[in-house]
Amino acid sequence: MRLKDKVSVITGAGGGMGRVAALRFAAEGSRVVVADNQAAAAEETVRQVRAVGGEAVPVTVDISKEADVKAMIDMAIRKYGRLDVLYNNAGIMPEDDHSVLDTPVEVWDAVMAVNVRGVYLACKYAIPHMVERHSGSIINVSSFVALLGCSVPQDAYTASKGAVVALTRSLAVQFAPQGVRTNAILPGPVETPLLMDWLVKDEKAKQLRLARNPTGRFGKPDEVVSLALYLASDESAWTNGASLVIDGGISVNYF
Ligand SMILES: NC(=O)c1ccc[n+]([C@@H]2O[C@H](COP(=O)([O-])OP(=O)(O)OC[C@H]3O[C@@H](n4cnc5c(N)ncnc54)[C@H](O)[C@@H]3O)[C@@H](O)[C@H]2O)c1
Fold first, then answer.
1. Which residue has the CA at smallest separation from atom 20 of ligand 1?
2. Could you list the pLDDT tens digit for every one of the 255 residues in the chain?
3. What ranges do the domains of the chain cover?
């Protein structure tokens, strides 16, 4: 088992890639704190983990709220006594996030609050526990849009994911001497509710995205989670500060 005896906090684990991650981390021996702002969704993930013999506990948390995030980390320590992996996966991509010209300020702020402040807060409360044991892996989920401009813009989302990459590098440099590694995953379009709920209503946007991908398809949650498993495990002991792109080749496609 690749994560035997480890304790992982996975945010946004009530759905999409986070739920897949909770199931696969538990199957590899991790005890998993399933964090989501949708209580029923978190409970359902935990039910699925336990149904196959895994160990998990749900926690309802809005990762943009400091008191919630502190309570999430406190709960992980109280319940399992340690924290090995922080998987900052929760993120939002609202439909009314377009260009800077027409994105409302409230939408911009909401995206930043979840996608950037959420990562900051989780790191703020998790890192001291990791430093104490001189061991930990932080996995921050960014996106390939942090690297590329897009003629169908989502400027708040794009800026938020760029911030995640920059913060990842800073944490990697600060805390590796104290045993804590930090890396970012930059997925391309993946078949999860976050993307599919949106593309199902916009066939043109869907075809545009498929046409850009040399593999001719969207990614599958399992394919991204496989990379997260590597980062969570000791196999990646010397991987630190990396921005790992997993996008089927979109970001290297000129024509
Ligand atoms: N799906 C894609 O194509 C894609 C591509 C690149 C990056 N990403 C990133 O991957 C991550 C996971 O995306 P997904 O596609 O699985 O999304 P999803 O929408 O399917 O799942 C996200 C989960 O996060 C939870 N969540 C939302 N706001 C929250 C908050 N404030 N506090 C706690 N939980 C919250 C949701 O309830 C949901 O369970 C996100 O950070 C997303 O930006 C996704």
1. 16
2. 999 999 999 999 999 999 999 999 999 999 999 999 999 999 999 999 999 999 999 999 999 999 999 999 999 999 999 999 999 999 999 999 999 999 999 999 999 999 999 999 999 999 999 999 999 999 999 999 999 998 889 999 999 999 999 999 999 999 999 999 999 999 999 998 878 887 777 888 888 888 989 999 999 999 999 999 999 999 999 999 999 999 999 999 988
3. 7-192+220-243
pTM for the complete prediction? Answer: 0.98
Classify domain 7-192+220-243 by CATH architecture.
3-Layer(aba) Sandwich (3.40)
Instruction: Spell out the SS3 assignment of 130-181.
Output: HHHCCCEEEEEECCHHHCCCCCCCCHHHHHHHHHHHHHHHHHHHHHHHHCEE
Distance, CA 16 to ligand 1 centroid (Å)? 7
Residues 95, 104 contacting (CB under 8 angstroms): no
Residue ranges of E strands in the chain = 7-11, 31-36, 55-60, 85-88, 136-141, 180-187, 243-246
Protein residues whose CB sits closer than 6 Å to any atom of ligand 1: 11-12, 14-18, 36-38, 41, 61-64, 89-93, 114, 141, 143, 187, 189-190, 192-195
Distance 194 CA to ligand 1 centre (A): 6
CA–centroid distance, 119 to ligand 1, in Å, is 12
Residue identifier of the C-alpha nearest atom 41 of ligand 1: 91
Catalytic (active site) residue 80: no
